[in-house]
């Protein structure tokens, strides 16, 4: 029984009072492009750099080189060893994180206005003149190898890796960016220098900054930080990946009371005309947290899992429609059966008007909430550039969601949602469900 | 799997803006007649608001035999009221573009929503409604008990390091209820009933036992007006506030434990020592312990243990952790993963030698200066997240600090001296009140295999 408060009634599709985010598109004197959101209320600047290609630019037989190289950028550069470099960053109260994924090498930096130029100089040094000292290489290599072995005993990692292997064939997406204990063990200093030249170049960097800095100062800073990098990377950008996934079930034996489930089926690229219809469909089916159909059927009604979720996973070089959950070994077969039946029911019957309205209100309402801090803004704006979105996407995105109709959702669901195309990877001791080919 | 965009975390633990006697910029507070205490944190940069209600009651307030009831009730709080159907609160928040969740810890149970600022009245109305009108349907409580059991399976029973952490807490706290897991012991969770949950709710959920935090694009005047409107009419319950808990007796012998499991890839050592917590008007020792943890392991390159153990090839990772936000005495923790080829005994001896050296030498002046610089910078960065500051005030007030204590914390951290740190180090590094645990792979330790260091601080459960 549901009785609503009077105040619960809101105008359907009410657009949020989105305080427009003013994105300046600037070009530095040296020709480096960046997006900037100025906000002088807090005396610091957040900046994100994304170098496209990321770990997918690893050379053949050198898997893990870009990941190891990335971890070594903060371990000494110029005339500073790893300890001296860290002391330099700490004494400014600055921060720089170096991360890498399948799609990009990401630098997240933050500096106080009072010493921003000094912080930028340390960042320049790390990106253009890393030392790769022998002791640092060996220390970080051992840490990476420990991560690899840790992941080998983590059921979630085991499931994700198996699914990636089944999905992506020869593409780098099919294997872990960490490499294997063996491949990482064989990497030399020359391999690390080659890895750096493959990815750290001006032709593949996307820049966004937010905070207490103006366009002129940002331009100068970017020329300082990035001007010394090679104009072009030494490796061409990765090719698109071709999805190899076949429907069915894989089971990996693991001694645990619960089975971890990862699953995927074909997705669609962001420039597909039905992308936003699929995005709305996913929210109703499994992406919408407590309000999704899968959560309702599997958790709320039956208590078979603590959580189940789906999402459109759109990488720069390939995409799937995927999901995950964990369920007791004796109950996981029922939970997997419910995913399949909800999948097919969705394609067959479509969505109700209320589901559609609620989904659109959530998806449009949630979007502006993401932009509530300099760090978040810089990260989002760099990511938009990485995947090729224009700056005015922040203003047009919600209208694309609002334009989705129930017929659009049904069409894309009938096109894409087929339970026999889902590949489930089960890690555990599942009862009543067998592996297929 | 593939991510659209990789988002780097920008979370920071240290809080607030400068000012001693007066309130920091953008922070205000008030108390309603029914005892509800409220803090407003203004941030008008984005049209977003966060509402949090923290109840000053947690798993350490449970009666023996009913472990897990605080967390189980947290789940059942989503099952509806006279006006709201099961799950309707979350669905309503979602349908209005917001998100909501809740979490339970030893000392508090908290509920929050993050939503467009113009929807604040909606979420305040619903949160106030479930403060006094919870209804739990016959069909809902059994399915939800299965959900929390699945949560335990996922978080604890599938993870040897989480199981080990739970047992280490039980060994550290012989008498205090911090020795029981927040989520509960499985066999006790299986016996929890709707009556248990309702009794817990009736006894403890009341405005005079709660803290309301409103953070984001809101003025203090509007926040107060809405709080009066929605929470003001709810009557106080004089007996709702928490009772004193059994305290730990003096620990005279250091305790050790060991566990092997085939799912563990490499040995990890975790040592915790009983340590004082932050108390109202008395946070100096806690501040020194916080800075001590930073000095020992806050940096992978420059910290004491990184230099002595990691850079020298004796350990792959070291960590130190201390969080003084608890009602009763807590722990200071150190963890270590030995480097391949270094025996567990040698690694632990090297750790002990490094700690002994620190006890003798005290902090390095240049390192302490750098840590102080980072503390000052963190005050600036913390202003970037109203949500983060909402946690600082909510957590602080729920464990019995005053708003002035939370305001003053960054200054107290900044005033920590080398002598304070020596005294704090002696308190936790030269103590018999320790538990040293080794979590090992099955069979002989495999050189080269590994696990990430495990946080020594127990976490929250959602």
Automatic annotation (TrEMBL), chain A:
Segments forming domain Peptidase M16 C-terminal: 187-362
Signal peptide range in chain numbering: 1-20
Pfam families listed in its UniProt record: Peptidase_M16 (PF00675), Peptidase_M16_C (PF05193)
Entry keywords, A to Z: Hydrolase, Protease, Signal
Database matches in InterPro entries: Metalloenz_LuxS/M16, MPP/UQCRC_Complex, Pept_M16_N, Peptidase_M16_C
GO molecular-function terms, A-Z: metal ion binding; peptidase activity
All residue ranges annotated as the Peptidase M16 N-terminal domain in the record: 37-180
GO terms, biological process: proteolysis
UniProt keyword Mitochondrion present: no
Protein name: Zinc protease
From TrEMBL, chain B:
Residues annotated as domain Peptidase M16 C-terminal: 192-374
Domain Peptidase M16 N-terminal: 40-183
Domain of life: Bacteria
Basic and acidic residues: compositionally biased ranges: 239-262
Gene3D superfamilies registered for this protein in UniProt: Metalloenzyme, LuxS/M16 peptidase-like
Region (Disordered): 231-266, 440-462
Gene Ontology molecular function terms on file: metal ion binding; metalloendopeptidase activity
Keywords for the protein's UniProt record, in alphabetical order: Hydrolase, Metal-binding, Metalloprotease, Protease, Signal, Zinc
The keyword Transport belongs to this UniProt entry's keyword annotation: no
Signal peptide positions on this chain: 1-21
UniProt xrefs under InterPro entries: Metalloenz_LuxS/M16 (IPR011249), Pept_M16_N (IPR011765), Pept_M16_Zn_BS (IPR001431), Peptidase_M16 (IPR050626), Peptidase_M16_C (IPR007863)
Family: Belongs to the peptidase M16 family.
Designated name of the protein: Zinc protease
Organism of origin: Paracoccus laeviglucosivorans
């Amino acid at each position: 029984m549901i009785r609503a408060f009077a105040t619960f009634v809101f105008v359907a599709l009410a657009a949020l009072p989105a305080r427009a985010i003013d994105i300046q598109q600037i070009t530095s004197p040296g020709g480096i492009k960046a997006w900037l959101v100025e906000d002088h209320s807090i005396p610091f600047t957040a900046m994100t750099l994304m170098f496209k290609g990321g770990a997918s630019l690893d050379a053949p037989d050198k898997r893990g080189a870009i990941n190891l190289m990335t971890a070594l950028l903060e371990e000494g550069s110029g005339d500073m060893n790893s300890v001296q470099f860290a002391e330099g960053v700490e004494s400014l109260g600055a921060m720089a994180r170096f991360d890498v994924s399948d799609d990009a090498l990401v630098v997240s930096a933050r500096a106080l206005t009072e010493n921003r130029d000094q912080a930028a100089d340390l960042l320049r040094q790390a990106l253009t003149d890393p030392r790769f000292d022998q002791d640092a290489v060996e220390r970080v290599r051992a840490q990476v190898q420990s991560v690899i072995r840790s992941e080998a005993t983590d059921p979630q990692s085991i499931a994700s890796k198996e699914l990636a292997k089944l999905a992506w064939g020869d593409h780098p997406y099919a294997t872990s960016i960490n490499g294997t204990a063996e491949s990482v063990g064989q990497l030399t200093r020359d391999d690390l220098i080659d890895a750096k030249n493959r990815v750290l170049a001006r032709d593949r960097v996307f820049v966004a900054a937010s905070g207490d800095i103006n366009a002129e100062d940002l331009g100068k800073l970017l020329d300082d930080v990035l001007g010394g990098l090679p104009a072009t990377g030494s490796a061409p950008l990765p090719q698109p990946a071709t999805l190899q996934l076949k429907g069915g079930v894989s089971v990996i034996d693991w001694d645990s009371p619960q089975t971890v489930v990862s699953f995927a089926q074909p997705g669609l690229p962001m420039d597909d005309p039905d992308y936003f219809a699929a995005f709305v469909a996913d929210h109703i089916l499994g992406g919408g947290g407590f309000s999704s159909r899968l959560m309702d059927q599997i958790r709320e009604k039956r208590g078979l899992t603590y959580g189940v979720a789906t999402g459109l996973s759109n990488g720069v070089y390939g995409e799937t429609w995927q999901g995950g959950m964990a369920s007791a070994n004796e109950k996981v077969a029922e939970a997997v059966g419910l995913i399949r039946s909800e999948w097919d029911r969705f394609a067959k019957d479509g969505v109700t008007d209320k589901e559609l309205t609620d989904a659109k209100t959530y998806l449009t309402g949630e979007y502006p909430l993401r932009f509530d801090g300099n760090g978040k803004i810089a990260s989002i704006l760099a990511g938009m550039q990485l995947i090729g979105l224009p700056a005015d996407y922040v203003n047009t995105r919600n209208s694309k969601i609002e334009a989705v109709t129930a017929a659009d959702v049904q069409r894309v669901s009938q096109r894409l949602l087929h339970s026999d195309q889902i590949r489930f990877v089960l890690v555990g001791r599942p009862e009543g469900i067998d592996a297929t080919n | 799997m593939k991510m659209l965009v990789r988002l780097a975390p920008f979370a920071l633990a240290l809080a607030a803006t400068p000012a001693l006697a007066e309130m920091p910029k953008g922070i205000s507070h008030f108390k309603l007649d029914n005892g509800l205490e409220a803090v407003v944190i203004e941030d008008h940069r984005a049209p977003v608001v966060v509402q949090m209600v923290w109840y000053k009651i947690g798993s350490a307030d449970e009666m023996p035999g009913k472990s897990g009831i605080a967390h189980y009730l947290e789940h059942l709080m989503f099952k509806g009221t006279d006006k709201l159907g099961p799950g309707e609160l979350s669905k309503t928040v979602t349908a209005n573009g917001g998100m909501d969740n809740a979490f339970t810890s030893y000392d508090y149970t908290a509920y929050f929503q993050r939503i467009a600022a113009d929807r604040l009245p909606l979420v305040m109305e619903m949160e106030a409604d479930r403060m006094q009108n919870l209804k739990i349907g016959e069909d809902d409580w059994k399915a939800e008990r299965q959900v929390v059991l699945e949560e335990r399976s996922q978080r604890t029973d599938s993870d040897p390091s989480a199981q080990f952490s739970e047992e280490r807490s039980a060994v550290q706290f012989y008498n205090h209820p911090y020795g029981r897991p927040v989520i509960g012991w499985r066999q006790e969770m299986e016996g929890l009933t709707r009556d248990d949950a309702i009794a817990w709710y009736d006894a403890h959920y009341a405005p005079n036992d709660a803290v309301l935090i409103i953070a984001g694009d809101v003025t203090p005047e509007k926040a107060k007006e809405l709080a009066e409107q929605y929470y003001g009419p709810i009557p106080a319950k004089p007996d709702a506030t928490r009772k004193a808990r059994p305290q730990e007796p003096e620990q005279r012998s250091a305790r050790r434990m060991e566990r092997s499991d085939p799912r563990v890839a490499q040995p990890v050592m975790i040592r915790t020592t009983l340590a004082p917590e932050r108390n109202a008007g008395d946070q100096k020792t806690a501040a020194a312990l916080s800075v001590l943890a930073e000095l020992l392991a806050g940096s992978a390159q420059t910290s004491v243990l990184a230099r002595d153990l990691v850079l020298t090839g004796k350990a792959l990772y070291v960590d130190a952790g201390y969080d003084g936000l608890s009602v009763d005495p807590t722990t200071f923790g150190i963890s270590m993963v030995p480097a391949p080829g270094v025996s567990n005994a040698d690694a632990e001896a090297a750790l002990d030698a490094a700690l002994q050296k620190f006890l003798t030498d005290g902090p390095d002046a240049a390192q302490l200066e750098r840590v102080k610089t980072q503390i000052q910078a963190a005050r600036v960065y913390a202003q970037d997240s109203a949500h983060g500051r909402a946690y600082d005030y909510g957590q602080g007030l729920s464990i019995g600090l005053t708003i002035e204590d939370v305001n003053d914390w960054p200054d107290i951290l900044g005033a920590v001296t080398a002598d304070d740190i020596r005294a704090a180090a002696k308190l936790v590094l030269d103590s018999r009140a320790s538990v040293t645990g080794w979590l090992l792979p099955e069979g002989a330790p495999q050189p080269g295999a590994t696990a990430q260091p495990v946080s020594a601080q127990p976490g929250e459960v959602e």
